[in-house]
Amino acid sequence: MVLKQFKTWWRLPVTIKIRVLRLFWCRVWKQQCRKHDIIWGSIFLYSTNNKLRVSFNNNCYQLDFIYHRRPLVLDVRGQMSSDIFTFFQLFVANEYEPFFQKFRKSNIKSIIDCGANVGYFSVQVLTWFPAAKALLVEPDLDNLAQIETNLSRNNLGESCQLIHGAIWPTDQYLEIHDKGGEWAYQVQPSESVNELKGFTLLKLMQTAGFDRIDLLKLDVEGAEELLFKHSLFKETLKNHVGIIVMEIHDDYARRNFICEELDKFGFEFFDSGELTICTKK
């Protein structure tokens, strides 16, 4: 086992080798560990027992691995990026696994991914449902560029449409006002015309060319309650959406209120970690 771990460590890029060694040192001497060291240490242990290879090219780490019997390649930006935390949540901690296990036999063909970040979820869900089409909505241009890269590396570009923007109760201009890392951008209405637009769920569905949304993923950093207060959003949910997977950010949104609204429109739901998974009764 030790020899296997050493071989895995030896194949890592130099910067990640240093992180793993520093994590080991801190734990031996009971010092406080850095968050990125802990995550990369977990990736190291995961790669020891799974077919995952880490390389470094063009200022990005490339992670090659097998997921759901399919080879995937995903880019992770520099050491201090939040990309590696997202990768860990989805592919190591398997945050969405309860959803996939429950709905793996469902006929999911149309997906809208609101708060797409760098596209890891859409890559993951299209691996499970390869016949589906997806619309990815993301407010940050740097994240949007990473989405394009990750889709291209996995030959998923033709299955997806990208929109620079955010889901919002009404169609209007927005601006990013709180940057909590690349995975936690928040938006608010803008008083001036700019390139960042908010779109209603109905508008997004029409833009994608869908007549219904089989799967709606919402990770909108606290805007959930704003959406559920708006009649057009709720009517679109009622009439056109089959399954919802969302993260309710309790610092900004009232969970009880959202759950009550979902119940009114015939959804049943259960929590799985940070996720709330909803389907029509």
What does the main sheet amount to? Answer: 10 strands, mixed
Estimate the global geometry from the Cα principal axes.
globular
The percent range for helix content is 25-40%
Could you tell me how far the N terminus lies from the C terminus, measured between alpha carbons in angstroms? Answer: 48 Å
| Rg computed from alpha carbons, rounded to a whole number of angstroms | 20 Å
- Helix-strand makeup class: alpha/beta
Uncertain stretches of 5 or more adjacent residues: none
User: Secondary-structure element sequence?
Assistant: HHHEEEHHEHEHEEEEHEHHEHEE
* Average of pLDDT: 93
DSSP summary, beta strand count: 13
* Main β-sheet, spatial strand arrangement: 8-7-9-6-5-4-10-11-13-12
DSSP strand (E) fraction?
A: 25-35%
User: Helical stretch count?
Assistant: 11
